[in-house]
Design a protein that fits this description.
409 residues, alpha/beta, Tyrosyl-Transfer RNA Synthetase, Structural Genomics Hypothetical 15.5 Kd Protein In mrcA-pckA Intergenic Region, Chain A, five-stranded mixed beta sheet, globular
Length: 409
């Protein structure tokens, strides 16, 4: 792949790029670039939203560039203030080391372990002398730190900002000085910290790194509005995630629930397919290809990446036999709903079970024929479920979702 093609691939889905001309020049040199991305191991389990950055690293790796996976074991104990309005709780080294093991294990489900260089920033940050930390602090200003939106917000609201929090971007920036990478990758919320590293490197006599940020992936419940993907970012708390270690069938099923148009966002950020192949799939959809077939292509790729091809084949077969026919899945969630009277309104049951966002949406779904009760079509929007019964609800036709609702007094 020539330099121009590489540039098109590695910048696909990127939010920020400082500076494109520099990246083009370094790719054109033909020399393998040194690519860094850092992770503070603060939580043990990851989802595919976290994998967006790893997938971008993998692209560079597959193009022959050298990838450095930096574990921020030192900075994790300081606590990244990014996006928070209060002081983050500080972690112990034991907590960090335990989470770091999980991070690296999961990272190698995407990256090639044999060609990935793993580094820990405690290697150089633990060794910094007080005089060297003072020198590091002298290379920026308080005004520069207050350009960060979270710091500025807390300052304006008269909320405390602790001095060690100002140190965090500098310490992360010093990682770039220590590793002398060509490119640093990070999530869109990390832009300030990454640019601090770019600013610091020339002050230590190093060539400034190129900064690239990836977007925060929206959850599987996202929609397209006015041509844009709209929805909460993927997270466990929003229950709109696909975990890296989830069962193959669960992963496959969750992909098939993604909106028919939103799936292309997932292709762009996580797929190994080329821009041309993704454009071809879009064209096939416009030409009438069943969107479920297109989503199945991504589902197979995802399951293969985090499990293997055999697991992907089995998940596809199981999905076809369980979810594409009249059979009821084994993992249907159950909800116990207490009522004051004798009945529960069908629209309220749908809303309480999380199958719709509101009772008004539930009523519309019933009126439009998109709801089944105990595997039979439900057309009465005023139907009442009697207390003491257990009912199977289903909404949707292509992306079917089920829930058991037990009505009790």
């Amino acid at each position: 792949m020539n330099a121009e093609e590489q540039l098109a691939l590695v910048t696909r889905g990127i939010v920020d790029l400082h500076v494109r001309t520099e990246l083009a020049e370094r790719l054109a040199s033909g020399k393998p670039l040194k690519i860094k991305a850092g992770f503070d191991p603060t939580r043990p389990d990851l989802h595919i939203g976290h994998a967006v950055l790893l997938a971008k690293m993998r692209q560079f790796q597959q193009l022959g560039h050298h990838v450095v996976l930096l574990v921020g074991d030192f900075t994790a104990m300081v606590g990244d203030p990014t996006g928070v309005n209060e002081l983050r709780p500080r972690l112990t080294r034991e907590q960090v080391e335990s989470a770091a093991k999980t991070y690296t294990d999961q990272a190698f489900k995407i990256l090639d372990e044999k060609t990935t260089e793993v580094r820990y920033n405690s290697e150089w940050l633990d060794a910094l002398k007080p005089s060297e930390i003072v020198e590091l602090m002298a290379k920026t200003t308080v005004a520069r730190m207050l350009e960060r939106s979270d710091f500025a917000k807390r300052y304006a609201e008269n909320k405390p900002i602790h001095q060690h929090e100002f140190l965090y971007p500098l310490l992360q920036g010093y990682d770039s000085v220590a590793l002398e990478c060509d490119v640093e990758l990070g999530g869109g919320d990390q832009l300030f910290n990454l640019l601090v590293g770019r600013d610091l490197m020339p002050k230590y006599g190093k060539r400034a790194q190129i900064v690239m940020t990836t977007p925060l992936l929206e959850g599987i419940d996202a929609k397209i509005e006015n041509g844009h993907v709209v929805g909460k970012k993927m997270s466990k708390s929003a229950d709109n995630y696909i975990g890296l270690t989830e069962d193959p069938l669960v992963m496959f099923r969750k992909v098939m629930q993604i909106d028919d148009d939103v799936i292309f966002r997932y292709f762009e950020l996580l797929s190994d397919k080329t821009n041309e192949e993704i454009a071809g799939l879009r064209e096939q959809k416009r030409g009438g290809k069943n969107p479920m077939e297109i989503k199945a292509i991504f589902a197979r790729e995802l399951v293969t990446r985090f499990h293997d091809a055999g697991a992907a084949d089995k998940a596809a077969g199981d999905f076809a036999s369980i979810y594409s026919k009249d059979a009821v899945p084994d993992d249907v969630p159950e909800h116990d709903v207490k009522v004051e009277g004798e009945t529960l309104w069908i629209a309220k049951a749908l809303s309480t079970a999380g199958l719709v966002k509101s009772t008004s949406e539930g009523r519309r779904m019933v009126e439009q024929g998109g709801v089944e009760l105990d595997q039979k079509p439900m057309r009465d929007p005023q139907h009442q479920l009697a207390a003491g019964g257990r009912y199977l609800l289903r909404v949707g036709s292509k992306n079917r979702r089920f829930a058991w609702v037990k009505v009790s007094k």
